[in-house]
Write a structure and sequence with these properties.
eight-stranded parallel barrel, single chain, alpha/beta, TIM Barrel
């Protein structure tokens, strides 16, 4: 079954909207946040826990699984989902971001990218066709077109050249795609340049994809620049297509993007923060290793009903980190993902009730102490 998207009701005072992504693994309601399972694992969590803190859709990384253990080994397990014993829906990125972010030594030409393995230094070559072939072997429900992701502050001349090349690569990738059970999304690039973002979107849509992804944001630019790019694209995004903002996951960015009509998100932020003892709460992000939590008998977040908040005190969680026990990052990872899952549920309820703007402002005022 090829995933298909169904647009639901919309908030009358914003571009926020509801949707349903129909997949072979079930129906995913949008807006939705996707936990990141880079290496066929959401770090520290078991598949049953991933299911509990997600809405049934996660992301795996093409670049990393291509290099280790290799797509043929993953395919022998029936794809990533069989490999990791996960029963939900799956999206894979194209590997393009990692090719450009993890390797300092790379050579880009019309055919593809020659680069160095980020650990071994081995010389590697990635093309649009290879990216699609690897993603087909990985067996995701939704896959991504191979793109170049240049630095956000690249000058207009280089960014224009990059956008045009990404469009040509997108055409090649679509031609190489053979699995009818996979949805293929095109990716919009263009950095901070409004004209290039508009051109990238128009040229990508002309190729014909099942969904549209917005790349090249949350890469070090200001929030003002991110939101401005989304404002440029928002009125031009097709109503019938799912819209995916890649690599974005802070609470404010999620709500601001939903306000602009975005449906899907992913980010490593909640689990990366957790490994350093940073936890989301309704009253803002806290550092659980701080001394003030040593004898704090309260739950991590009194408003949260996840198993961490209903079972453990802040004092105990701080103890785990101070004792260097791996259960600490595991529990905070679980909670942070549960927190974002609940945020998406509350956002959907607010859209349904035509009060998304009020919900967004109230949540952000409390979370950031405004």
């Amino acid at each position: 079954m090829k995933p298909r998207f169904e647009v639901g009701s919309k908030d009358e005072k914003s571009r926020a909207r509801l949707g349903k992504l129909h997949t072979a693994a079930g129906v995913i309601e949008t807006p939705v946040f996707m936990p990141v399972g880079t290496q066929a694992t959401v770090k520290t969590l078991e598949p049953a826990e991933i299911t509990a803190v997600s809405d049934g859709l996660i992301l795996a990384n093409t670049y990393h699984l291509w290099l280790q253990p290799g797509e043929s080994i993953v395919a022998a397990h029936g794809g990533v989902k069989g490999f990791m014993n996960y029963q939900g829906a799956l999206l894979t990125d194209s590997g393009g971001y990692q090719v450009f972010s993890l390797s300092d030594l790379r050579d880009i030409d019309e055919e593809g990218v020659t680069f160095r393995h980020h650990k071994s230094g081995e010389r590697l070559f990635m093309t649009p066709e290879i990216s699609i072939a690897v993603q087909e072997a990985l067996g995701a429900d939704i896959i991504m077109s191979f793109d170049e992701c240049p630095p956000f502050d690249s000058d207009h001349a280089y960014m224009k050249q990059s956008v045009e090349r990404t469009v040509r690569w997108a055409k090649r990738g679509k031609e190489a795609h053979t699995r009818e059970d996979q949805a293929l999304f095109g990716i919009v690039q263009g950095g901070p340049h409004d004209d290039l973002r508009r051109h990238s979107l128009e040229a990508t849509l002309a190729i014909g994809f099942d969904g549209i992804a917005i790349g090249g944001l949350s890469v070090g630019e200001s929030k003002t620049d991110m939101y401005r790019v989304l404002d440029v694209l928002a009125p031009r995004l097709p109503e019938a297509m799912p819209r995916y903002l890649m690599g974005v996951g802070t609470p404010d960015d999620l709500l601001e993007a939903i306000d602009r009509g975005i449906d899907m998100f992913d980010c490593v932020n909640p689990t990366r923060l957790a490994r350093h003892g940073a936890a989301y709460t309704i009253d803002g992000q806290i550092a659980i290793k701080a001394a003030r939590y040593q004898d704090d008998m309260a739950p991590l977040d009194a408003s949260c009903d996840c198993k961490v908040c209903t079972s453990y005190t802040r004092s105990y969680l701080r103890h785990l980190f101070k004792a260097d026990e791996q259960l600490g990052p595991r529990l905070i990872s679980y909670h942070n993902l549960a927190f974002l899952r609940r945020l998406m549920h509350e956002a959907r309820e607010a859209i349904r009730a035509n009060r998304f703007g009020e919900f967004k402002h109230a949540f952000l005022a409390r979370f950031y102490g405004e």
